[in-house]
Amino acid sequence: MYSRRRSAGPAQSMSAGSWALVCALSILWGLGFFLNTIALRELDPFTINLARIAIAALVLAAAVYLGGLRLPSTGGQWVSYTVMAILNCVIPFNIVLWSQTHISAGLAAILNASTPLFSVLVAHFVTGHERITFVRLAGIVVGLMGVSVVIGHSVLDEPDHNTLAQIGMLVAAILYALAAAYGRRFRYEPPLVTAAGQFVAATIVMVPVALVFGKAQIPFQPSNETVGAVAVLGIVCMGLGYIIAFRVLAAAGGTNMLLVTLMIPASAVLLDTAFLGRSLEANHLEGFALIGFGLAIVDGRLVRRVRMLW
């Protein structure tokens, strides 16, 4: 997810170029959920996470230096990047990958769409940077109702792996929200440097984690399909994806990033259905509709347009 979060004010107008970036980013990150499923056929979550994070770190570090910037050199900055990496990459990415061993890419993407709801709650109760208005509170309530519809009544029964995987996706969403709040300390640094720094730190942290908990055997010869999936995950979905994300932030503002969150499930579900033959249940679609409606209320544009009609 994003390494920093701008304050949510009125949404900036969207140019054709900004819409193209938003659509491209939503497709790339939706593709990421699909490629996770492909890679998990042969590799364990920890090995996949290390590989794609390391590749993304190389891509982002190269972009930093090609752009005439430099990574930080002080120990204090790297400690901050490491904390950010653990909150934003190491723990949530591993949880997402484990969850996708039990649930579809589309369902994982739908639950991931709840991240902005938790971000608003964290900003209000943890950091105090943004106070919740009545309208935003209403949007959060609607969105969380959607989450409960997606998970269904299974959470009240004896939890199975499927239920735990869905709860895991919500834990990952909360960690993304905490990371967004923590990322405010980097708001005066170039965003590309922040992204590269956290991925380099995440790579260093993930090496011992993958060695201890991963199941990859050395030597290991994965199929071309798996190698391709991991390569695209690291280079395109994460490396290029984060570069595009910061272009969206600069061109369209943080509020419009909500549009990406809403659009990611569409590409994930389409890929899941077209290539893996998986389909969502009715409660998943109903819950996503409520999550989307809740995010639209939190975003504020829907409410303003209704007020204009009156």
Structure in a nutshell:
It is globular, with a radius of gyration of 19 Å. It has helices at residues 16-39, 45-66, 75-99, 105-112, 115-127, 134-151, 161-182, 191-213, 224-252, 257-276, 282-299, 301-309.
Structure description:
It is a single chain. With 310 residues, this protein is an all-alpha fold. It is globular and about 65 Å long. The protein starts with 15 loop residues before the first helix and ends with a helix. The N terminus is likely disordered.
**What does the average pLDDT come to?**
87
Number of helices: 12
Please identify the structural class as seen in this structure.
mainly alpha
SSE succession: HHHHHHHHHHHH
Q: Note the overall shape.
A: globular
CA-CA gap between termini: 37 Å
Radius of gyration: 19 Å
Main sheet makeup: none
Helix-residue proportion: over 70%
Total of domains: 1
Topology (elements, then pairings):
Layout: H1 16-39, H2 45-66, H3 75-99, H4 105-112, H5 115-127, H6 134-151, H7 161-182, H8 191-213, H9 224-252, H10 257-276, H11 282-299, H12 301-309
Keywords:
mainly alpha, 310 residues, 0% strand, 12 helices
